[in-house]
Amino acid sequence: MSAPDGLLERLRGRVLPTVQAVLPLVLRIAGARVPADARRRSCLVLAPHGDDEVLGCGATILARRSAGARVVVAYVTDGGAFPDWLDPVDNVAKRLAETDSAAAALGLDKSDVVQLAFPDGLLESAERSGALGAALERVLSDVQPDDVLTTSPWDPHPDHAALGRAVRSAVRPGGPRLLEYPIWQWESILAWPRMLRDAHRPEIVRTKEHRQRKSEALMAYSSQLDVDQGGELPPGKGLPPVLFDRLTSGYEIFFPVHSAAADARARR
Asked: Of 116, 205, 200, which is closest to residue 166 (Cα–Cα)?
């Protein structure tokens, strides 16, 4: 490693933890508190993988269900790619059982769960072929939600980004509100400038009232958590500690996106 590279690596090691600590506080202060009547709005939660719906939206789902709103969760991939040292067929069966348990913990009926079952890790291909967009348009037509909650095109995970782009195209002007929730952005400071550029003022949902049940729903995904987090994976193989702590903290954050220009930027 050259001296400049070494310097950059040391700076990154110092700057990244600081940004990871400060950014959530800044967003929380800057964000708008979601009014109580928003809980009565129906919503469609689009999760690229089973566990993303809990990590990004678990308390929001519980809050809306407790207010009597209809909530539908669509799991977009089959979850077969992880753990990557196990048979994908076994992973798919395991993840299907986990999504059933998590949905029940979130207060969802079986009729409120949709399994799109695209191959895990290949959503970019499904996006390019048009299959993902067509499936999303069918779900949107069936559910007719007031709000759509999904991952962002600027999420560093390829499946998450592909879903974000496809949803932006599928949600038409004058249709439901589109709100994007961060997952892997919490580990990548480079994703935030683009995400913040596209979004309106972030909206904050406090999780205190529903934090325990959100944790119970997350524990359904033992195949994704390491033993230190209550799962079954070897230490260090589950969600990184920073990400786990951020996504199980005292609030959830959503970024409203209602711009064709933002959709065009995400496709460049």
From this structure: 116
| Superfamily name with CATH number, domain 31-266 | LmbE-like (3.40.50.10320)
d(CA 215, CA 219): 6
Give the pLDDT confidence of 24-46 residue by residue, as tens digits.
Answer: 778 877 788 887 788 999 999 99
Cβ(183)–Cβ(155) under 8 Å?
yes
Residue with token string 């209550």: 230
Please tell me the total number of residues recorded for the chain in this structure: 268
**Interatomic CA distance for residues 239 and 262, integer angstroms:** 29
Tens of pLDDT, residue by residue over 187-228, are 887 888 888 898 888 999 989 899 999 999 999 999 999 999
Q: With a threshold of 0.85, does the pTM exceed it?
A: yes
Going from the C-alpha of 225 to that of each of 45, 118, 152, 210, 245, the distances in angstroms are 22, 22, 23, 20, 12
* Beta pairing, strands 251-256 & 177-180: antiparallel
DSSP-derived pairing of the beta strands 113-118 and 71-77: parallel
Are the C-beta atoms of 215 and 55 separated by less than 8 Å? no
* Contact indicator for 142, 113 with CB cutoff of 8 Å: no
Beta bridge mates, 33 = 204
Q: Are strands 203-206 and 147-150 parallel, antiparallel or unpaired?
A: unpaired
Q: What 8-state DSSP symbol labels residue 86?
A: S
- The residues facing 179 across adjacent strands are 149, 256
Using an 8 Å Cβ cutoff, are 84 and 216 in contact?
A: no
**Quick check: helix, strand or coil at residue 73?**
strand
Q: How far apart are CA 23 and CA 33, in angstroms?
A: 17
Measured CA distances, 61 to 26, 79, 109, 164 (Å)? 24, 21, 12, 19
Question: Which SS3 state, helix, strand or coil, does residue 19 take?
Answer: helix
> Do residues 145 and 176 touch, judged by C-beta distance below 8 A?
yes
